[in-house]
Structure formats: structure tokens, C-alpha cells
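Notebook entry, structure prediction.
Reason for the run: the old model in the group folder had no record of what sequence produced it. Starting over properly, with the input documented here first.
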Amino acid sequence: MESLPAYEVYALKYAHHERLASHNFLGGDPHDGPMPIDYFVWAIVGGGRSFVVDTGFDAAVGRKRGRDVERCPSEALPMIGVEPAAVRDVIVTHMHYDHCGNHHLFPEATFHLQDREMAYASGRHMCHAALGGAYEADDVCAMVRRLFTGRLQFHDGVEELAPGLSLHHLGGHTMGMQAVRVWTRRGWVVLASDASHLYANMDEGRPYPIIYNLGEVLEGYAMLRKLASSPKAVIPGHDPLVLQRYPAPRADLRGIVARLDADPLY
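New structure, fully documented this time:
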């Protein structure tokens, strides 16, 4: 592994939603109580390149869906020295509204998406509100427009995007759900995104309620652990604990940015 670049990996919080635990688990939660979620975009920096993982949603979509947008990703990314307009590669883990909005922020980027996610988001499954409700039509159309301007690259299954950085199709949450595996100074870190929204989903084997294929969700938990150097190196997609378990890159970014290539605080 000595020949691989050791990437820096960041989680950047851009929005928040107060909710009950029953909203976060398939079948609810018998010990219901407050269990908010945070919304993140991620940045991977190293090897002379910067990659953004997911692009979030804007204030208008936040108002529509009752989510509190605290900052635009275009404000968060420069905090760690990443300028959105200069980013050349954006990885979209899946096309739910909270992961693939804000296309205009990355005019020079090629977006990386699993074949199956585009087929899912533009196919017959979207006739069902229980599956299509987490998508925004404008985001899906924007992705199609990227395709016809040469700014979309499809992937099928497992593919290396750069030395020490690979994409892994898991499915489950959506048909084309993919995780990102990154080599860092502490070994392999895996950005699970919504393959596990919270630590508790994976640790307790209790999936989040928006599901395309339950079996793939559960098998995905095992694959996430297999891909990471340790169980603590799997990063869930929406857990506020991420900002508590990992240090900020500097004091003024506490509660906003977590440095995921650093050893966890606990």
C-alpha cells in the first residue's frame, strides 16, 4: 500500500432535521424518542486531486421537505480548501434529493454514477410514491442533461476511480446505491452514505425504512465492514455522532467538519 496516496477525507455538514427514532428504523422503534439526523457532503483530497462525494440539496428543497439548511455546500467546501467550481470529479452515491442537488455548483465536474441508479430513477419504480418520493424530478433531469454534455460517467459494480479510491455497488437502499472506499493514513475508510444512515442501522441490523431491496441492505452491512480496515472506519451517511467521534480539522470548524482520515476520538 506504500505506493498509494494517503487521502484526506472530510465530512461536511450542511443541513439538519429533528425527528423521532421511529423514523429511522424499519418497523419503527419501541423506545421512541428524539433521534435527529444530519446531512453531509464529503470531500476526498490527495494524489493531486479533489473528489466531492454527493452534492446535497439547496434551501428551496430544504423548505419544501422541512429540512433546516445551515449552509450551502459551496460555503462548506472552501472551509477545507476545496473550490466547487474547480472540482473535476463528483461521486454520486445515489440520486435521492439530499445527495444529488446543486449540480450548478460543479460546472467543470464529471459526475460518477452507477448504471443501475439511473435506470432506477428514470424507470417504472418511480411510479410508486414509496420509492419515488425521495427523488426530485429536477435532479434526475439535470443528471440526464449531464449525460448529453459529456459530464456523466457510468460505473457497473466495483470500479477503481483513482489509485486508492474505488466505487462499490451495494444496492439495497436504492437499486444503484454505491459506497466509496478510500486509502488513508489509518487504512481503508469507507464512506457508506445511505448504505447505513446511522451507526445504529448497521450495528444493530435494523435498516432505515426507505428500501429497494431488504436483503441487499443487510448484505451491504457485511460488505461495508469487509471493505474497511476496521469497523470504526465505516462512516454512516447521516449520523450526528460522526461530528463527535472525529476531530475537526481546526477549532473553528467543530460541529461543521470532521476529519475522517484521523483516528476516531472514541
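Summary: The helical segments are 59-65, 73-76, 115-121, 129-132, 137-148, 199-203, 214-227, 242-245.
The old model has been moved to the deprecated folder.
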